[in-house]
Design brief:
The protein folds into 6 domains: 99 residues, 3-Layer(aba) Sandwich (Rossmann fold), CATH 3.40.50; 197 residues, UDP-N-acetylmuramoyl-L-alanine:D-glutamate ligase (3-Layer(aba) Sandwich), CATH 3.40.1190.10; 141 residues, Mur ligase, C-terminal domain (Protein-Tyrosine Phosphatase, Chain A, Alpha-Beta Complex), CATH 3.90.190.20; 70 residues, Uridine Diphospho-n-acetylenolpyruvylglucosamine Reductase, domain 2, CATH 3.30.43.10; 125 residues, Uridine Diphospho-n-acetylenolpyruvylglucosamine Reductase, domain 3 (2-Layer Sandwich), CATH 3.30.465; 81 residues, Alpha-Beta Complex (Uridine Diphospho-n-acetylenolpyruvylglucosamine Reductase, domain 1), CATH 3.90.78.10. The chain is elongated, with a radius of gyration of 32 Å. It has a 10-stranded mixed beta sheet, sandwiched between helices. The chain has a 6-stranded mixed beta sheet with strand order 16-17-21-18-19-20. β30 and β31 form a beta hairpin. It contains 23 helices and 42 strands. It is of the alpha/beta class.
């Protein structure tokens, strides 16, 4: 059955695969209003699914060929559902016609007097304005909107007139199929690299759209590319803009933080002094585009200018959301550099303290293609938190990821004064909730699921979790404790709560308290093999106090040490006792607890080989003493200490060589000479584990990583497996450099390097 035949039918059964996207949900409602039976499915059902179900539309979660029984007349798929998916393949095998959303929508709109709003930027807002203006002027138009608007019951619906105002999406190329009576073109700037091979292909899609307009093309004269394209097309047109070259334009503009006022000039005369209750130069243009289209549809200027004072923006367009007292949180869909720059320009008009933002890039292809333009777009911020890319069904290899973009920010001179990276939205939320201060303005930016942070913002700071209970006065509890200075890299964020343990009983109590209250507990030594995210860490970080746990004893038969003693403490005691065999630890920083957990080693030596027993507290808060054989020592790990904390260790004397203290001192000096270049550098030693039968350092050097730099982090010239944090470095610099090094070795040799350093990156790692 042809598409035209299907659309002509007033009834039928359409199944929509990927129905919970706004565009697909809108099409479901249009078909439903037309009298069709509509069913649908999606990978994850959202709030739109609830609204669809409330009107009798049948939905199921997931994708499966089983959803096609009983057989629908037509299957419509979102671009997020691949052509080769099992559900779509089964539909074709059953002989069912399968169409893309844009194909069906274009055919459906051709049955109405359609105003189609298109353009790279501003089409959702312009469409929303056009719908509100037309309905305020007395035309009960239908609508199809790529966003949610509070004055509309849903994102799409049929009206009581012949008119239907629709947002026309160019992302999959189906824009070229539209044949509207009136079209609005806001601007054209290359985008959707996942579909269009280049800018020429992108522009060709719009050129075809222009040729399909039957009555009038309304276009923005502020866009130089549109000026050329419209001139070449020869189609009937009406221009709008901010100067007298346009047919309809704004003059005597006064812009404020909450809106703007201007004279609307039409046919050379002032039609009205317009008060627009939304800020931004681009929103004046969006209004002018909507106004111009409504005028061509027959609305009076007076009605439209009066209605302007009551216009509302769609959700996630400079949307102010509930937030902690004294702060402003704005949720915005911007995901292109041009849109981001416009957003920040508006936000700068708000008289608040710091201007901060969290940004989730959208699609790997866009991140790669527009990467150079992003840093300058964020100019004017005091701080930016960069989140991982929202894939939107793309594979990472299609373009650039978060770290490639972060590197561009750190190399740019025109960006926020502080740029930090979050490993997840959860990590970003933890950081923002902990650091959002009175008078801050926070922008939540992106087209993916970053808006979850805006939704959560109103709860930030309302409830604070109390610290551990029942500990003795020998333990010290601190809130929001900075951890960077406690690591050898000297970078990183804060612990939500930190406890310095003063006795063994408190270690047991803390572990049991954390388990009972479902609080994540981490143990910190000297931070010699640790990278703490700039986002900080939730839960509790604990450290054994040196007063009780930092001693080293040799009674002639046993060499024992507390887990808070350093490697140097142990070496000094062994040297004094004339016990040789620990010299490989010379220059390796850290406490014995950390050295045991990582089974530290170098130059053929390994700590686990000379351990006799370890006393520890396990994850249940039980203190036990285990022989070395039960500890699970392996290359750079100790299995038994993954979920436990060591308190004390005893070394097997038979593993030592009895020599003079002078001989041991000489051996230690020789070992220090090998690591002399480390002295004074902020680093954590080897960053990556050696792959089986290989050297991580050799692979990284062969891949050309020596000297690589991101911000203040640099790969040491002396050793390609060492990252040095220079002045001005942060943890995001180090983490980014690690990711780039891993990617390079994977690309060159097909080997995925595993970190040897411990990464505290998120709220629950």
């Amino acid at each position: 059955m042809s598409l035209d035949k299907i659309i002509e039918e007033s009834t039928g059964h359409a199944h929509l695969a990927g129905v919970c996207g706004i565009g697909m949900a809108g099409l479901a409602w249009l078909l439903h209003d037309k009298g069709w039976r509509v069913s649908g499915c999606d990978k994850c059902l959202n709030h739109l699914a609830d609204a669809l179900r409330a009107e009798g539309i049948e939905l199921v979660e997931g994708h499966s060929p089983r959803h096609l029984a009983p057989g629908p007349a037509v299957v419509i798929r979102s671009t997020a559902v691949p052509e080769d998916s099992a559900e779509i393949a089964a539909a074709r095998e059953a002989g069912l016609p399968v169409f893309r959303r844009g194909e069906v929508l274009a055919a459906l709109l051709a049955r109405y007097a359609t105003v189609a709003v298109a353009g790279t930027h501003g089409k959702t807002t312009t469409t929303a304005f056009c719908i509100q203006l037309m309905r305020s002027a007395g035309i009960e138009c239908g609508w199809y909107l790529g966003g949610e608007l509070s004055v509309l019951p849903r994102v799409a619906g049929l009206g009581r007139s012949e008119w239907l105002v629709a947002e026309a999406d160019e992302s999959d190329g189906t824009l070229s199929l539209y044949r509207p009576r009136i079209a609005v073109l806001t601007n054209i700037e290359y985008d959707h690299m996942e579909h269009f091979a280049d800018s020429a292909a992108f522009q060709h899609c719009f050129s075809t759209f222009i040729r399909g307009v039957s009555e009038c093309l309304v276009w923005c004269r502020e866009d130089p590319l549109l000026c050329r394209m419209v001139s070449a097309s020869g189609c009937p047109n009406l221009s709008y803009g901010l100067n007298a070259q346009a047919d309809i334009y704004a003059a005597e503009i006064v812009m404020g933080a909450n809106g703007s006022v201007f004279d609307l000039i039409e046919e050379g005369a002032v039609a009205a002094r317009v008060s627009l209750p939304v800020p931004g130069r681009h929103n004046i243009l969006n209004f002018l585009g909507a106004y111009s289209a409504c005028r061509r549809a027959g609305c009076s200027a007076a009605d439209l200018c009066r209605a302007a004072a009551h216009l509302q923006l769609p959700r996630r367009r400079f949307e102010r959301v509930p937030s902690p007292p004294g702060t402003v949180v704005l949720n915005d869909y911007a995901h292109h550099p041009t849109e981001v720059a416009a957003l920040i320009s508006m936000a700068q008009r708000i008289e608040q303290g710091r201007l901060r933002a969290v940004f989730q890039p959208h699609r790997y292809t866009r991140t790669a293609a527009l990467g150079e333009a992003f840093p300058a777009a964020f100019n004017g911020l005091d701080e930016l938190v960069l989140c991982p890319v929202y894939a939107a069904s793309e594979a990472p290899e299609k373009g650039d990821d978060q770290w490639a973009l972060y590197r561009r920010f750190r190399e740019s001179k025109t960006t926020a004064s502080s740029v930090l990276a979050a490993s997840s939205l959860a990590a970003a939320q933890h950081y923002l909730a902990a650091t959002l201060s009175k008078h801050d303005t926070l922008l939540v930016i992106g087209a993916g699921d970053v808006n979850s942070l805006a939704t959560a913002a109103q709860e930030w700071g309302r409830a604070t979790r109390g610290g551990p209970e029942g500990l003795s006065s020998s333990s010290v509890i601190s809130q929001a404790k900075e951890l960077g200075a406690m690591t050898t890299w000297g970078v990183g964020g804060a612990a939500e709560c930190m406890v310095e343990i003063g006795c063994e009983a408190d270690a047991v109590k803390l572990i049991k308290w954390a388990e009972k209250n479902n609080v994540f507990l981490r143990w910190l030594g000297r931070g010699a093999n640790l990278l703490v995210s700039d986002m900080g860490v939730a839960g509790v970080v604990a450290r054994l106090g040196r007063t009780v746990f930092g001693r080293v004893d040799f009674d002639g038969s046993d060499l024992t040490a507390g887990a808070a003693a350093t490697g140097r403490d142990l070496l000094n005691a062994a040297e004094k006792a004339g016990l040789a065999g620990l010299e490989f630890l010379e220059g390796i920083p850290g406490t014995l607890g950390g050295l045991l957990r990582m089974n530290a080693g170098a130059h053929g030596g390994e700590l686990g080989r000379i351990v006799k027993w370890v006393r520890l507290v396990d994850s249940d808060g039980v203190s036990v003493c285990l022989p070395a054989a039960d500890m699970g020592f392996a290359y750079r790990e100790c299995a038994r200490l993954r979920d436990a904390v060591a308190l004390e260790v005893c070394f097997a004397l038979e593993a030592f060589e009895k020599v003079s203290s002078e001989e041991i001192a000489a051996r230690r000096k020789a070992m220090r000479a090998k690591r002399k270049w480390y002295k004074g550098l902020r680093c954590a030693g080897s960053v990556f584990r050696n792959p089986q039968g290989e050297s991580a350092g050799r692979l990284l050097e062969a891949a050309g990583c020596k000297g690589w730099r991101v911000g203040g982090a640099v790969v040491a010239q002396q050793h390609a497996n060492v990252i040095v944090a220079e002045k001005g470095a942060n943890a995001s610099d180090v983490r980014c450099l690690m990711a780039l090094m891993q990617r390079k070795v994977a690309a060159e040799y097909g080997i995925i390097l595993e970190p040897e350093v411990v990464l505290w990156e998120s709220c629950a790692d």
